[in-house]
Amino acid sequence: MNTHDVAKALEVWTLQNLLNLSILLGILALGLAMAGKYLQALEKRLTLRVSIEIWQVFSVLLVDVFLVVVVLAGFAVLNPDIMADIKVAVPFVPAAVVLFALALYLRLFKGGHQVSSRTYKGALWAMFFANLLNILGFTLVMEAPGEEYLALHPSPFWTFVRAHLRSNASPHGLELAQLSFYVCFPLLVLLFLLAFKESLKGTGEK
For residues 168 and 85, is the Cβ–Cβ distance under 8 A? Predict the structure, then answer.
């Protein structure tokens, strides 16, 4: 194995684990958002004003930080070259990245930090469906039974999943990965532009 092969293997290992980590962080973000009322109940037990403010910032900021990491990791992975190298469940993971980006947009620019608001619930639903897609994609596609298992226990279902729904499976998986990119990448760009437009509102005003 030459230096190029080692570097390529390290790149694939890093990107695959980055994607796997982002899936776990997405679950954590949803869990914290779902526990919004519970966190508010804990907040009432705090007595010092400073501690209350720190708790409020912490409980809100942590979800946003997780979402930022998930979206950035998804953006890094969601391109044809990388999806051809690592196993990405398509169209599950690309669609989940878009939903996570939507949740982040709602939380940051549409008042989605208030637990009682409709926007908060909208962001919560977006994170829920994103995690559902990721869980299904990770469990059924990315971690589908390997070739050794299928050699001993043939299964048309698992064979189809491995051949058609993994982004690095040639040719069907690669084709679906391309289609997922053509659909999901413009949606990510659109959300980025909408976020940028929202950030410009009120700037320059005195």
Answer: yes
